[in-house]
Design goal:
Blueprint: E1 11-17, E2 23-29, E3 46-50, E4 53-56, E5 71-76, H1 85-89, H2 92-113, H3 116-136, H4 141-147, E6 151-152, H5 161-167, E7 174-179, H6 183-187, H7 193-197, E8 202-205, H8 210-217, E9 219-220, E10 223-227, H9 240-248, H10 250-260, E11 266-269, E12 278-281, H11 289-297, E13 309-312, H12 317-322, H13 328-345, H14 353-367
Parallel strand pairs: 3-5, 7-8, 7-10, 11-13
Antiparallel strand pairs: 1-2, 2-5, 3-4, 6-8, 9-10, 12-13
Helix pairs in contact: 2-4, 3-4, 3-8, 13-14
């Protein structure tokens, strides 16, 4: 028995190599993810043999870390029986076996992916570590990018980049995606209102790894991957009517900029909003809110103060009414509420919740 897993494997495959190098491998994918899959001190699942003599089951370099869920054995005829751990880490024979094994494993995953139901079962257990390979394994990135899956605004379950591409509009120039917290919040985010209205699919990336992974990938073939969390995501979708509305909102935008000052990087008219009066995005060169949170959780305390961009919806009734407000106090409160409600939607912390409630109550009192 290769391991102490008593369930039937989800997938298994055998290799017998002869010629310049002689070795055999037997790998399998367990039915369930190992308990220590996301532990830094995970137990590797591949055992190394030389001429059928057991050498080690504690060597993490036999396969890359994103394939740490693989279980099995490697049996080499060419390695010396007295091979040490130091020799293993720099051994050319073992490196070639590793490279060939990774290609074999990923090839088996490609075959499995043709069975949608079976692959969905596999991806539920092992999709997250597989995505890690996109920034760990540049050599096999093109294969891995075909294997990763994401949720979507247009389909149930998961979808691939290839299938998204088939559903793209004839004049669509990019694959759009949104990153952040929970799937439910992302599906209701103001950032995708315009895309929904124009029937443009957006990939829902609710895994905290996605921000790191997709920024490292950048493109799918010749198609750019665009984050709707960023300010430039709608530039290629603006109509002439959108540009007219943006221009009409310029005087109000200048007033809001003066009020918010150092709280935001910029204030812009938005064409991405339909139901909401405002939203927050980040500059194309700044990390997203989710990425900032990840960096802080990793102990990075030297992050610069990254300010968001506030976008307002020129066609929303609230914004239209703000254009006619002469009372500076009311205009200040309204501008701050636009910012603070957008911060709440993004999962950001409001600096002064008591003042937020006070402003909100003042507006409620007037409305009632």
């Amino acid at each position: 028995m290769i391991s102490h897993d008593y369930d039937e494997p989800m997938l298994y495959f055998h290799t017998q190599a002869e010629g310049v190098m002689e070795y055999s491998t037997l790998f399998y994918v367990p039915k369930k993810a190992p308990m220590d899959l996301y532990f830094a001190d995970y137990r590797p699942g591949v055992k190394l043999y030389v001429k059928r003599v057991f050498i080690t089951d504690d060597e993490k370099t036999l396969l890359p870390t994103y394939l740490r869920f693989i279980r099995g054995i490697i049996d080499s005829e060419d390695l010396p029986l007295n091979v040490s751990r130091e020799m293993l880490q720099h051994n050319r024979i073992l490196e070639k076996i590793r490279q060939a094994s990774v290609k074999k494993i990923l090839g088996e995953f490609q075959t499995l992916a043709k069975n949608g139901e079976k692959y969905a079962e596999f991806y539920k257990e092992f999709g997250k570590p597989l995505k890690e390979g996109l920034y760990q394994d540049f050599e096999n990135r093109e294969t891995l990018i075909e294997l990763v899956r994401f949720k979507s605004t247009d389909v149930e379950g998961f979808t691939s980049f290839a299938d998204y591409k088939l559903r793209m509009k004839p004049d669509q120039k990019a694959i759009y995606y949104i990153t952040g917290g929970s799937e439910e919040n992302l599906r209701q985010s103001p950032l995708i209102e315009m895309y929904r209205d124009r029937d443009i699919e957006v990939l829902i990336m609710d895994d905290e790894l996605d921000d790191i992974i997709i920024s490292a990938v950048g493109r799918y073939g010749d198609i750019e991957l665009k984050s709707v969390n960023r300010s430039d995501a709608v530039d290629d979708l603006k109509t002439d009517e959108d540009k007219k509305e943006e221009k009409a909102a310029e005087p109000l935008i200048q007033k809001i900029k003066e009020i918010l000052k150092d709280r935001v990087k910029d204030v812009k008219a938005s064409t991405r909003l339909s139901d909401s009066p405002s939203c927050l995005v980040v500059d194309e060169n700044d990390p997203t809110v989710q990425m900032q949170s990840i960096l802080k959780s990793m102990g990075n305390t030297n992050l610069p103060d990254i300010k968001p961009i506030l976008e307002i919806n020129p066609s929303h009734e609230i914004i239209k009414k703000m254009r006619g407000i002469d009372d500076q106090t009311v205009l200040e409160d309204a501008s701050l509420l636009l910012l603070e409600q957008a911060m709440l939607i993004e999962g950001m912390k409001i600096d002064n919740p008591a003042q937020f409630v006070k402003r909100l109550n003042a507006f409620l009192e007037k409305a009632l």
